[in-house]
Amino acid sequence: PVLWGLAAEGEAGVRRVLRTLLDEYDHTLALCGGRRNADLSADMVVRQGAAWRGEAAW
């Protein structure tokens, strides 16, 4: 994405791409109930392709 931004709009494009990625990360973090990286934990992550076992399996 950064190279695309650079090719499309130069430095301003790179800044826009990075700002968008940061905004999307902040939004996703908020949807997970966090406000900062330290609020995340490994149990919030489900690997792609992993079978969901539910809480009873833990």
Automatic annotation (TrEMBL):
Q: Name one GO molecular function term.
A: oxidoreductase activity
**Record's signal peptide:** none
Q: One Pfam family, short name please?
A: FMN_dh
Q: What region holds the FMN-dependent dehydrogenase domain?
A: 1-46
Q: What is this protein called?
A: Alpha-hydroxy-acid oxidizing protein
Cofactor(s) demanded: FMN
Query: InterPro entries annotated for this entry?
Result: Aldolase_TIM, FMN-dep_DH
The regions listed as transmembrane in this protein's record are none
